[in-house]
Structures are given as structure tokens and as C-alpha cells.
Amino acid sequence: MTTILVFGDSIACGFWDSEGGWVARLRKYLDKRNLSEDGSYYVVYNLGISGDTTRELLKRFDAEVKARVNEIESPKDLIIIFAIGINDAGMLNSKDMVPPLEFKRSLEKLLDKARSLTSNVVFIGSTPVDETKTHPVAWSEGFHYDNASIARDNKIIEAVCAEDRVMFLGLARPFGPGYSSLLQDGVHPNSDGHKLIYQTVKSFLVKKKLIK
Q1: Residues whose CB falls within 8 Å of the CB of residue 51, separated by 6 or more in sequence, listed in order
Q2: Residue 5: helix, strand or coil by DSSP?
Q3: What is the DSSP letter of 14?
Q4: What is the number of alpha carbons within 13 Å of residue 100 lying toward its C-beta?
Q5: According to the model, what pLDDT value does residue 40 have?
Q6: What is the pLDDT of residue 75?
Q7: Does residue 73 belong to any structural domain of this protein?
């Protein structure tokens, strides 16, 4: 049995997708694999929480893992996926929610915790936003997202992964030109956006031989 823990925010949680989001789509795909009698068996846990930054994730990581990995027989049977960072890059009253240096240190702490459990660790970069709808966002006074801050933090994630030889999957290229049509409210992907993330993540995990 392979256990997959997906840590993230509201995008990982699956907001604005009639199919439950990209993580739910991945679980559905793997649930079908489980029924195919090819010897594989996967359990997927969606551990996305709306509004989370790396600060909040660090506080809950140990407890979330402890509640779910007690049956794992080997580190190779655990995959940890981090899809976190877009809220860290957000701006509240023109100040970073999580300053870049703190963000980098938080990523390193999360990575240390994850790699103490398994070598199967993947970081997924944040998606771009439609800035015409995010200055400010409609649901939080004084809060906004901009693509420059998101790109900055994606580079930090990629650099941390490169330094420690950890798998990184960027989403900026898959979204590409015209990506605003994939966003529901300027930030969260719609069903088409979640489908694209799912397809990109699934292909990446298959390529890396983490899933079949």
C-alpha cells in the first residue's frame, strides 16, 4: 500500500471544481487503479486547508502525519506532496504575508520533516493569478496577490528543491497564455484549471515512477 499525503491550501482543497479539485481527481484515478487488480494500492489524503501559509502548515504537519502513517511499512510506501505558497506570496496592506527569508526557512523545515519520513517528496509551484481581479481580492479587505510575488516565491521553492535534490513541478508553463480562463475568481482554478493541474501532476508522478 502506498500512502500519498497532499499538503496545501484552498487550491489543493479543491475550491470551485465540481469534481472536488485536482487532488480528488488524482484520488479517483488511483481508486480505479486499486480496482484493476494489477497489484497496486494507493491511499490519498487531501490535507489542504483554505488560507494556509507555510506558517500554519508547519504547526500541523507532525500531527497530520502521525494520524495517517502508522501503518506504513517502509519509507518507499509514502509520498508527500507540498502544494503550498500562494498565500505566503499574498500581500496584506502592502506587506508580505510571509517574508521571503521566512518562507525559505519554512520550506527547509518542512523539507527536513518530510525527508525524515521518505525520499518521495514533491513540491508543486503556485499557479499565476489574474491581477485584474486580485487588487484587492473580493473576499478580504486590504489583501491582494500579484504575479511578481508569486514568481519570486516559486523561484525560492525551486531553489530549495534544487539544493536538496527534491522533485519540483512548476505550473506556470502548463497554464501558459490565456490562463485567466482557467481561474474562477482570479486566484482559484475553475474545473478546467483543476483538470489541467491534475493531468500535469499525474503525468509527473508517473514519469517519476511514483505511481503507475
Answers
A1: 9, 10, 87
A2: strand
A3: T
A4: 11
A5: 82
A6: 84
A7: yes
Contact 91, 143 (CB under 8 A): yes
Is residue 196 over pLDDT 70? Answer: yes
3-state SS of the chain: helix, strand, coil percent to 5? Answer: 45, 15, 40
Q: What's 20's DSSP letter?
A: -
To the nearest whole number, what is the mean pLDDT of the chain?
A: 95
Beta strand segments in 113-207, E:
121-124, 143-144, 167-169
- Helix (H) or strand (E) segment spanning residue 108: helix 100-115
Q: How far is CA 66 from CA 44, 78, 88, 114, 210, in A?
A: 15, 13, 25, 12, 22
CB-CB contact of 49 with 7 (8 Å): no
| Residue 137 covered by a domain | yes
CATH of the domain at 144: 3.40.50.1110
Query: Which tens digits make up the pLDDT trace of 121-178?
Result: 999 999 999 999 999 998 888 999 999 999 999 999 999 999 999 999 999 999 999 9
Q: d(Cα 50, Cα 141) in Å, to the nearest integer?
A: 17
- Indicate the helix (H) or strand (E) that contains 147: helix 147-164
Domain range spanning residue 20? 2-207
Q: What is the pTM of this model?
A: 0.96
**Is 212 domain-assigned?**
no
pLDDT exceeds 70 at position 179: yes
Q: Does residue 177 fall inside a structural domain? A: yes
Report the domain count for the chain: 1
Query: What residue type is 131 in one-letter code?
Result: E
